[in-house]
Amino acid sequence: MSTKFRRALIVTFVLLLAAAFAPAAHADQTSKAQPFIVGGHDVSIGDHPYVVYLVDGRDHQFCGGTLVEHDTVLTAAHCAAAVRPYELGVVAGRQDTRMADGIEAGVRSVWLAPGYQDPTAGNDIAVLKLDRSVPYRPARLPSGGDSDLYRPGTEAMVLGWGRLWEGGDKATELQGATVPVMSDSQCIQAYGSYEPDTMMCAGYPEGGVDACHGDSGGPLVVGDILVGIVSWGDGCAKPGKPGVYTRVATYSDHVESLLVRLRG
Ligand code: 4AZ
């Protein structure tokens, strides 16, 4: 066998090997990208058209949000305060952050809940008035009579593009996970600074399913009612450390009157 022929054989063999392993490597990657927020799964933005994400001045996703009107978004105060308003963008109708579909709106004005200082001290809610209307169905706010929504064990869904595990990569596709509402006594046990008036918590005692960094500001919904806003927690999906959410019902009246004013 000539050296040249032998070399050609080796090259062919290596190429064949590469071809054989490439699909396996790809399959492995997609299976890794399946289950998450932490412990969730891919969900269709068509089923949750009110979910949006916030981008900073460099167009990077850093928080979530929820349309409550066609031109108004509810998010966490700590998200709205993180970026100067003129650098803030809201992306609606886009399932995959790598794509260019949907609409990117600017923010005309920002309202932070009075008394907001730090997520762990409560009032972690903000309203963003967009510079245009987007044609996606908004979520509904809970009304005073909706106390059932906060009953322990109620199954809620948290949605976002945040990290898939603590310290891990962010999702590129919208993720959703079902988490049960926890009782205030469980939440107080988990966190000394838990405040039942302004917060709620959700998750499993054993952990495993949770919001994570980058999901902040995004929705916790029961059906299409926005019951919570991703706010804080000790890491992600740890046992005994549920996710803490802003208790939206506490702010519904305030937000509703603000919406009327913003509409005018
Ligand atoms: C964050 O940093 C964050 N596990 C969001 C949610 C939780 C923790 C941290 C809850 O955006």
TrEMBL record:
Entry superkingdom: Bacteria
Instruction: Print the keywords alphabetically.
Output: Disulfide bond, Hydrolase, Protease, Serine protease, Signal
**Any one Gene Ontology molecular-function term assigned to this protein's record:** serine-type endopeptidase activity
Do the record's keywords include Lipoprotein?
A: no
Biological process GO annotation list?
proteolysis
**Family annotation (SUPFAM superfamilies):** Trypsin-like serine proteases
* Lipid metabolism recorded as keyword: no
- Short name of any one Pfam family annotated for the protein: Trypsin
The UniProt entry, under CDD domains, shows: Tryp_SPc
Domain annotation Peptidase S1: ranges? 37-260
Q: Which residues form the signal peptide?
A: 1-27
Please report which protein family the annotation says this sequence is part of: Belongs to the peptidase S1 family.
What name has this protein been given in UniProt? Secreted trypsin-like serine protease
Q: Which organism is it from?
A: Saccharomonospora marina XMU15
